[in-house]
Amino acid sequence: MPTLPSYDQIPYEGHALPDTHPDTLATLGRLLGVATAPPEACRVLELGAAAGGNLIPMAVGLPGSEFLGVELGAEQARRGQALIESLGLTNVRLLHQDILDLDGNGGAFDYILVHGVWSWVPEAVREHILHLCARLLSPTGIAYVSYNVLPGWRSRSMLRDMLLYRTRGAATAGERLGQARALLDLLAAGLAEDPRPEGQVLRRELEYLRQARPSYLYHEYLEETNAPELFGDFLARAARHRLGYLADTQLHTMFASTLGPAAQAVVAGVEPQAEQEQVMDFLTLRPFRRTMLVRSEVAPDLDIDLDRLYGFGLYADLTPVGPPILDRVEAQTYGSAAGGSFQVEQPLTKALLAKLAAVYPNALPLADLLGDGAPATETETCLTEVFNLYASQALRLTARSATWPTTVSERPRATALARAQAAAGEGHAATARHRSLGLDALSGMLLTLLDGTRDRAALAAELVAAVIAEPELAAGLSGDLEAAVPANLDRLLWVYAREGLLEA
């Protein structure tokens, strides 16, 4: 079957995407009144699975569920299947196949994932994706589809036009990529002092792209097909396949209250919800969506009852800026490991976040976190803050009961998946909570050494020897290696434990 040469020459770098995990989709669906399949016993189909960087970690963490990935790139499919076999997984398959060749006879799936595909494939493939979703979704199944959105993506398409012009004569994908990077550098220098608003927009995009992964730059900006569309047009297309809108995985974007009083007043009278969100896309110039679709006969409940939060476990890793203020209601900033910033006012919420931070990545039931002593009014305001944090993805809900060790043993052992990903030089590892943890050369090497046979002293000695032999591994280290390496080792082991990458 034909494969675009660019996808074999510059493979798309798939990695763990929290919004696509069955646990994320199941909990959001249940919060909206949909009886979704349990993450521990479900069937998942991913279209455009690359080398399984998103799907394989799910299969590792959910051994009672079944996973099928479809990938057109021959090299990507081969790499993913090789990893599956090396890990001894029996609940996941990765097929080298064209989406158009799927006939929909593989049985029903509870979750269908289509990330990084929709906007970048021909019209016939987009229509077939919706056909497959309509045919293969279980009665309360969820299809996740991400795509570029108009009108917001038009600001990015200006840069795409420039890059396509500059690279029009390139013979290979690698040559095109090199020419594109040269143009980005040229534009950044030329626009450095441009005072125009449009110059500022371009500078922000240039700054991001100059640091972006090669695969993102190439497949987002240099491929022949990139077809953004209006949210309303996407929903109309889905409706023709008897698929309806459930929500966006970034739940906060569905609420007009996030836009400020003036914009909120503009959209307050717009109905239904989908039309209101279309207007919000106009006001925010939103460039990208992560839409959840269900069968048209499924009726979600968008009037969310906060008491439903009691049906889930909660997990979060938020740190207050300064000592937590627990004796009064006062706004305080909390930061996430990813760099996000969030405001929390209620002492009860702050105490709850402290308990969650102490056990992360593990979750705790809401009832256990709140206890029985708080007045009803305080509990109600705390629930509102918890929901707002959830909607902003600062705090997560889970339908699972899984737990992970949070301490570092005398002879640390990383998970087989983490060691395999590090050994493959992928530059990232999937965490217990399905995040992608970036790895530099030194942290990746350490993961490969964590096979349970070495104590800290042996690990430090091997790292020091490696840094002496390959000085480039010392990037970011300062001072005497004999002191810097053990200190960095302790920090990395703490991070690995924090992300659930170590076994007991």
Key features of this structure:
3-stranded antiparallel beta sheet; Rossmann fold; 8-stranded mixed beta sheet; single chain; globular; alpha/beta; 504 residues
Low-confidence stretches: none
Count of alpha/pi helices:
19
> Would you tell me which CATH topology of the largest domain applies?
Rossmann fold
Please identify the oligomeric state. Answer: single chain
Kindly give the count of domains.
4
From the N-terminal CA to the C-terminal CA, the straight-line distance is 45 Å
Could you say what the CATH architecture of the largest domain is? 3-Layer(aba) Sandwich
What's the story with the biggest beta sheet? Answer: 8 strands, mixed
Structure description:
The protein folds into four domains: 214 residues, 3-Layer(aba) Sandwich (Rossmann fold); 68 residues, no CATH class; 93 residues; 83 residues, no CATH class. The chain has 504 residues and is of the alpha/beta class. It is built from 19 helices and 16 strands. Helix content is 43%, strand content 15%. The model has no long low-confidence stretch (mean pLDDT 92). A hairpin with a 5-residue loop joins β15 and β16. Strands 1, 2, 3, 4, 5, 6, 7 and 8 form an eight-stranded mixed β-sheet that branches. A three-stranded antiparallel β-sheet has the order 13-9-14. Strands 10-11-12 form a three-stranded antiparallel β-sheet, covered by helices on one side. It is globular and about 65 Å long.
